[in-house]
Amino acid sequence: MAQLERAKFGSKIGVILATAGSAVGLGNVWRFPYMTGENGGAAFIFIYIGCVLLLGIPCMVSEFIIGRNARSNTARAYGKLSGGRPWTAVGYLGVLTGFLITGYYAVVSGWCLQYIYASLVGHLDGNPEYIREYFVSFSQNPVKPIVWTVLFLIITHLVIVRGVRGGIEKASKLMMPTLFILLLVIVVAACMLPGAGKGISFLFRPDLGKVDSDMFLGALGQSFYSLSIGMGCVCTYASYFSRHTNLAASAVQIGVIDCLVAILAGLMIFPAAFSVGISPDSGPSLIFITLPNVFQQAFSGMPAVGFVISLLFYVLLSLAALTSLISLHEVSTAFLHEECRITRRSSAVIVTSTCSVIGALCSLSLGRFDGLQLFGKPLFDVFDFVTGQIFLPIGGFLTCLFVGWYIPHRVVRDEYTNNGTLHGRFFHFYLFCVKYVCPVCIVLVFLHQFGII
Fold this sequence. Notes:
Structural class: mainly alpha
CATH architecture: Up-down Bundle
Distance between the termini: 48 Å
Number of helices: 18
Number of domains: 1
Low-confidence stretches: none
Strand order of the largest sheet: 1-2
CATH class: Mainly Alpha
Radius of gyration: 21 Å
């Protein structure tokens, strides 16, 4: 079977922004701040950065190596490098994981659009109990969340059908700088609030009393998930890399951007929260329940400013969600395009349609539809658990074994050094991490999630 001609990213900045866009998502703007709040501020940040260096970047380089060497979709890439042996199943697992995450991730992304609308029409004004009820009422509505979910998938679809350069790369070059500008605007506004210094101090002053094994494992898990490891995104994007792309340098640059966005998100949220006396460890409810109250109270003397900041925040959140959803959608689109030999447009239509159905079912499961439950949990929570706590760790673990122990070291080194044109001064350190450090860390995170350790 002849291989279809592969598209390529057109520039180095396109490679960095597109792949960083895949990594930068709701995990950075939402999950990282509340985990930092629960785990002692700077103590968690330092450990997280260490985990990105020791776990995230080596795993990302490994997926880069597989994707660029094979120049195929994720499923076929593992098959080509393994000669069709059982390792192919790891590639298929990555595609399945990315596909399932696309479906339920679009639901939360749709919530962000709803909150842009709610900010515009003034629905987020009221007491804390009203804000809480607003979110519960909306998320359990049988129609509204589905409309926003499908709309978000359609926006993603319109980017994907335009291809790698005209769609993904072009959108990334627009959205990522916009995301950074919005972040900086909100950070400046938050840091100028009365009492904001307490939030800044909390973020950058380590609470060593909270350093324990749970914090280490939590930081490991966050670094793994925030860099989009194990869901096919990194491997798929790497198949569009030029042979001149420095894989290790690109991974480091993306890791730096990922950490920077996460820290800026903390600077955006904690100063505002402390200025109105709200706890920094508000947990998963932070974005849709706690923060509307924070913005409303923090800028009570300047309602127009509060309105703008709230609106910009949810635009920022939507952009972060969109950059990640584009990469997730591309995993399945590339797979169908190459394996089923159908056009890219037809592939994208199939992915958008099926993920809309999955998203609708996941959304309905959060309401009063008891039939959309498995093991006593809503379908949304089941998808989140299975992909995040089972498929991702397994996929990442097997990828490390594949690159570290199965692929000939000569092949790995050739990709790492661009066939000897780059100095591979950290190659042996990278290989040591992939062979020993990363697999052990992933197993520890996996066992911790199930309460075994």
